[in-house]
Amino acid sequence: MDYEVELKFQEVKEELEREFGGGMDVQTILFLIGVNELGIGHREFNKNEKTDLLHIAICTILEPYGFYQFKGRDEENWPHFDLIKSLPSLDHQEQQHLLKEAIISYFTENEYVSTTKSSS
Hints:
Helix 1 packs across helix 4 (92-109), helix 2 crosses helix 3 and helix 3 (47-62) crosses helix 4. It is built from four helices and two strands; from the N terminus they run αααββα. Strand 1 and strand 2 (79-83) form a beta hairpin. The chain is mainly alpha-helical. It has helices spanning 3-20, 26-38, 47-62, 92-109; strands at 68-73, 79-83. The two termini are 16 Å apart. The protein has one domain (3-109). The chain has a two-stranded antiparallel ribbon with strand order 1-2.
C-alpha cells in the first residue's frame, strides 16, 4: 500500500472523526459521501437505501477516474450514474487503496477537509 495515500487517508479520517465521532472506516466514510451527494439531510435509511447510498458514493468518487458518468436525478432526487468502463479486477488491498485514494480526492477537491500534514 502506498504510504503517502495511507497517511493522507488517516488525516481525512481523523478530521471526519472530529466532526462525526470515532470509529470511521472506509464503508462509513462512503456512507457519509452517499448521504452528502443525496443532499436531503439526515434521516433514517432502510437497508436498501443504505446500499444505494454506498453505490452513489462509489460512483461519485470513481467518476473522475472515468469509470462512471453522472446521468441525472430521479423524481425523488436520487442521483444515477452510467457505467462507462468496467472496474479492473483488483484484490482486496488494491480495492482499498483505490477507494482511499478516491476518498482523499473527494474530500480535498470539494474542500471538505485539508490534508496539510503530508505533501505530495
